[in-house]
Design a protein that fits this description.
The chain is an all-alpha fold and 255 residues long. The chain is 57% helix and 0% strand. The longest helix is centred in the N-terminal third of the chain and has 29 residues.
C-alpha cells in the first residue's frame, strides 16, 4: 500500500466505524420502545434523539478536550471545541482531528443512551436532558481521560481496548445511580408499585434490528429480549377477555 494513501484509508475506516456506532442509537431506541407502554413511545423515542443532540453539543465544546486534551492525570485542560493540537493521546492515529472527534462522540452518545433505558418512564424530559449533558461533559470524559487520555489509570497500565469500561461500565453505573435516584414507577400502580400496562407491541423489530446490527457495529451481542414480562402480560386488560378483541357481529333474530 502506498504510504500516502494510508491516512486517507484510515480516515474512511474511522468514519465508517463511527456510522456503525451511531446506528446503535436506533437499536437502543427500538429496545426501549419494545418494553415501554404504548402511550410513552413518543417520549422515549424523542429522548433517544435529543440525548444525542445534547451530548454532541457539550462533547464538542468541552468533553473532547477534557477527555483527550493534554493536562493532568485527572482531566484535560486544552483543545476546547477541538481547536489546536493538544491531543497527545491521539497522536498515533494519522487521521484528521475532526474524524477522531466524530468517532469519540459516538461512544459518548452510547454511554448517555444507556442511562435512558434504566430510567424509562420514570423521568421528565428536561431533567433527563440535563443528566445527559452531565454525562457528556463531566462523567464520561473524566473517566475516559483516566484510561484513554493518558490519565492516572493509564499510567498504572490499565488497558481498555473496545470500551467495556470507559463506555459500558461508565454508562451502566450512571444508569444504576439514576435508577436509584428516580425510584420505582408508581403511576397507576399504587404507592411504590409499578403500573401494569400493555407494551407497545414492538419486540420483534427491536430484537431483529439489534441482533443484526449490534454485532457488526460494536462487536457485542446479547441485547436481550424486549418482550414484556409474563407477569405484566397476565395482568394486561386484554389477557382476561374471553372474547376476541375485535368486534363480533351479532346473529340476527328470525321473525
Amino acid at each position: 500500500m502506498p504510504a500516502e494513501l494510508r491516512p486517507a484509508i484510515d480516515t474512511v475506516w474511522v468514519l465508517v466505524s463511527a456510522s456503525l456506532i451511531f446506528f446503535m442509537q436506533a437499536g437502543f431506541a427500538l429496545i426501549e420502545a419494545g418494553v415501554t407502554s404504548a402511550k410513552n413511545i413518543g417520549n422515549i423515542l424523542m429522548k433517544n434523539l435529543m440525548d444525542f443532540v445534547v451530548v454532541a453539543i457539550v462533547f464538542y465544546a468541552a468533553g473532547f478536550a477534557i477527555m483527550f486534551g493534554d493536562g493532568n492525570p485527572f482531566f484535560g485542560t486544552g483543545g476546547w471545541f477541538g481547536d489546536g493540537n493538544p491531543f497527545g493521546a491521539l497522536a498515533a492515529a494519522q487521521v484528521p482531528i475532526e474524524a477522531k472527534l466524530l468517532f469519540q462522540l459516538m461512544f459518548a452518545a452510547v454511554a448517555a443512551t444507556i442511562v435512558s433505558g434504566a430510567m424509562v418512564e420514570r423521568t421528565r424530559f428536561l431533567p433527563y436532558l440535563l443528566a445527559c449533558a452531565c454525562v457528556g461533559v463531566v462523567i464520561y470524559p473524566v473517566v475516559g481521560h483516566w484510561i484513554w487520555g493518558g490519565g492516572w489509570l493509564a499510567e498504572l497500565g490499565f488497558l481498555d481496548f473496545a470500551g467495556s469500561t470507559v463506555v459500558h461500565t461508565t454508562g451502566g453505573l450512571t444508569a444504576l445511580a439514576g435508577a436509584v435516584m428516580s425510584g420505582r414507577g408508581s403511576a397507576g400502580g399504587g404507592p411504590g408499585r409499578p403500573a401494569a400496562s400493555a407494551t407497545s407491541g414492538c419486540p420483534r423489530p427491536s430484537r431483529s434490528t439489534c441482533s443484526c446490527w449490534a454485532p457488526s457495529s460494536s462487536g457485542w451481542a446479547g441485547t436481550g429480549s424486549t418482550r414484556a414480562p409474563p407477569s405484566a402480560r397476565s395482568r394486561s386488560p386484554r389477557s382476561s377477555r374471553s372474547t376476541p378483541p375485535w368486534p363480533v357481529p351479532r346473529a340476527r333474530s328470525r321473525p
